[in-house]
Design a protein that fits this description.
By secondary structure, this protein is of the alpha+beta class. It is built from twelve helices and eleven strands. α2 (about 15-50) runs antiparallel to α8 (about 235-265).
Length: about 375
């Protein structure tokens, strides 16, 4: 211990500038480690908040359009556009009777399981809902409201005519206004359509919004009312990624400089080490002595930076990075202390071991062997 303290005193007195640089590298390394972790934690939480925001977007038309034109837009959009969507709804009419399509994307457009299993199937007066095969293949089957049945025009397991298409009635829906449910694929192109509703399960990207908007405007022009809706802030994500990457690079450079600086210190002690080696000092003892010297510098620096970061920096950046404060706790600081100490010891141990493994003769001469 006495020898270690003498080494530190000699280090500070004879190599003051190098000692200051050594402290600065340690300070930067610890600070960047804290800051990088905080930024990544903040970014992760911001991204989760943004992604998990659901929303409903209604696209309507000044004058009704034909379903064929809406199908054209849906086909042009491609499958990737449906990924953020939980449900797609289309409102059409035939002879004043609403025909509603509630769909989801599951390797192709099929009926919305949430709507049909939870809001329709339990309230069927008679019959059943569609099977997935019927919906995907566009079979001519229909579910109608009980009010239509009571008018005497239709009967269960009978048929209903929608333009030139004839549909078999497989289910009667109770407690609903007049309506007809048929598979989207088999729906007549001539159906008048007034609205297209998108239920997002998480926020889409801006590129997704622009693709949707441009396709609708190209086909329907001024007739479509396409609203602005909330999208994922890709620029903010890029900002956090850039800061995180920069912080990590700075931390790595500071660690490399730390090793280089201590290597220089060891080179000034090579003759002293040669004498100790000839006097019986083992490589293990010499290595342990140098690592203990490093830790006597590193540990106080770590706790000084921790105090500075926790009481000085976190309150200042709370408005810019609101989730950073919650990233840190005594347990997190303890874990980071163990990681930091372990990395410093490992990196410098490898460098010190190579140095103390040199023969006394080479240490006197200043060579590498």
């Amino acid at each position: 211990m006495i020898y270690i303290l003498k080494n530190l005193k000699s280090f500070i007195k004879n190599n003051t500038f190098i000692f200051v640089l050594f402290l600065l590298c340690q300070f930067v390394s610890v600070f960047v480690m804290f800051f990088s972790y905080g930024i990544i934690h903040n970014y992760s939480n911001v991204q989760k908040e943004e992604v998990l925001k659901s929303q409903i977007v209604e696209i309507n038309f000044d004058e009704s359009i034909k379903l064929r034109d809406l199908k054209k837009v849906i086909n042009r959009l491609g499958n990737d556009v449906f990924t953020p969507l939980d449900r797609i709804s289309i409102m059409s009419f035939y002879n004043g009777i609403p025909i509603v399509f509630n769909m989801e994307y599951d390797n192709g457009l099929t009926f919305s399981k949430d709507i049909y299993y939870e809001n329709i199937e339990p309230y069927l007066f008679e019959g059943r809902i569609f099977t997935e095969e019927e919906y995907r293949l566009g079979k001519n089957v229909a579910i109608i409201s009980l009010s239509l049945l009571e008018e005497g025009q239709y009967e269960y397991l009978g048929t209903i005519q929608v333009f030139d298409n004839e549909y078999k009635i497989i289910g009667i829906e109770e407690d609903s206004p007049q309506s007809i449910l048929i598979p989207y694929i088999s729906a007549p192109d001539e159906l008048d359509t007034i609205a297209f509703v998108l239920n997002y399960k998480y926020l889409p990207t801006r590129a997704h919004f622009l693709t949707m908007r441009d396709n609708f405007l190209e086909v329907f022009g001024d007739n479509v009312n396409f609203p602005e809706f909330q999208t994922l802030d890709v620029e903010e994500i890029s900002f956090f990624n850039t800061i995180s990457l920069t912080a990590i690079v700075i931390g790595l450079l500071a660690s490399v400089n730390l090793a280089v600086l201590f290597r220089y210190i060891l080179s000034t002690r090579r003759k002293t080490l040669a004498i100790f080696r000839m006097g019986g000092c083992t490589k293990g003892k010499a290595t342990a002595t140098y690592i203990a010297e490093i830790l006597m510098i590193s540990l106080p620096v770590f706790f000084v930076v921790l105090l500075f970061f926790d009481t000085g920096i976190l309150p200042l950046v709370d408005n810019l990075f609101p989730h950073m404060v919650n990233a840190f706790s005594p347990l997190v600081y303890l874990f980071m202390f163990i990681v930091y100490t372990g990395v410093v010891c490992l990196v410098l141990y490898l460098m010190i071991l190579r140095f103390v493994s040199r023969s006394p003769v080479s240490l006197f001469r200043g060579g590498e062997r």
